[in-house]
Amino acid sequence: MRPQIVLFGDSITEQSFRSGGWGSSLANTYSRKADVLVRGYGGYNTRWALFLLTHIFPLNSTKPPAATTIFFGANDAALLGRNSERQHHQVHIVPFPLSIEFPPLPICRIICCYNITSSHFVAVSWIGAAANSPFVHSSGFSTIGTSDNFSECSPAMLVVLITPPPVDEEGRKEYAKSLYGEKAMQFPERTNEMAGVYARQCVELAKDLGIHAIDLWSKMQGTDGWQKKFLSDGLHLTPEGNAVVHEEVVRVFSEAWLSAADMPYDFPHHSEIDGKNPEKAFLQKCL
After folding, report:
1. Pfam families annotated for this entry (predicted)?
2. Other beta carbons within 10 Å of 63
3. pLDDT tens digits, one per residue of 257-273
């Protein structure tokens, strides 16, 4: 059975299997080696995504994903007082372990916590979820539970946080005007400054938990003309922007242990099959 790679996020993930998308490119990179599953939900912030966790990462799973990307924050960073304010989500940073007091800071807050020392899938968790959430424990740390050990065919789950991309505020205004004309908003519903706040805290969280992060917000702004080169409407990705995400995900996966070049095919390459005795080629151990 092929290992699975789950892409969990908002519209930037949902759209990732469009032509030139980073998800489809990732599926091509890992063709016949891993199944890439898209779990993207346009418009979702991290609070709403909380309610999907038990469905995407079921409690009774005996083989959790080999890797998971978590790509939220673009909607959490929508500004209050503007037309996308219902998507805004300001939550609190909760240290891990949960034992000290701390000031509130805004940050996309879905995170996968993996106990590297035990080869157990510990939990996919929400930190700082709303107090009235049915998933929240008295400690304020809400988990979706645990699953069995990984089988010998599946190593520890690789978790990668991806920050929201930068925001081209002029691009957002132009896009709104193309849709609504003179009725379009006067000010953009998102700013690059606020996206940067969420991005920085996402990177810090990954560092604190010892997991991987891709600072897409900073990476893209290192290229001249990033506003039009990487963003189609000031927020979502162009094919070039998708290529950046694909390149970064492959880089992080490869630097960890999930290099496509080092993974075997799920079944024999056709060149290994003897036309007169094909059965011999299929007498192999599963991935």
Report:
1. Lipase_GDSL_2
2. 16
3. 999 999 999 999 999 99
Q: Which residues contact 233 (CB under 8 A, 6 or more apart)?
A: 171, 172, 174, 175
Whole-angstrom distance, CA of residue 151 vs CA of residue 265: 18
Mean pLDDT computed over 114-130:
31
Does 287 fall in a domain?
Answer: no
The number of distinct structural domains making up the chain is 1
Catalytic residues: 11
Task: Read off the pTM.
Answer: 0.77
CA 45 to chain centre: 12
Segment among 28-37, 96-105, 164-173 with least mean pLDDT: 96-105
Q: What is the CATH number of the domain that holds 35?
A: 3.40.50.1110
Which band of pLDDT confidence, cut at 50, 70 and 90, is reported for residue 240?
A: very high
Strand partners for 260: none
274: helix, strand or coil? coil
